[in-house]
User: What shape does this take?
Amino acid sequence: MSQRIILTGATGMVGEGVLLTLLGQPGVEAVLSISRQPSGHRHPKLHELLVPDFFDLLTIEGELAGYTACFFCAGISSLGLKEAAYTRTTHDLT
Assistant: This one.
């Protein structure tokens, strides 16, 4: 069975590695990358959906149907952030 994967964080170190691995897998039919900026990668399996605010995904809800798995690799560095801001992104968002 072919997999259709949603991936967040494809522009980061971990997410980019996951993206490249997924694109190279014959059992993966499609990868939907959801991020704030383009990944810079082009591939027939890859569709990128740019969203300015991960806390407001209602506008893209209809585009998420039909996927079989999700890799949530989005995150931020804690450097220079207050604990509440870091927790909001790395804990509350997931």
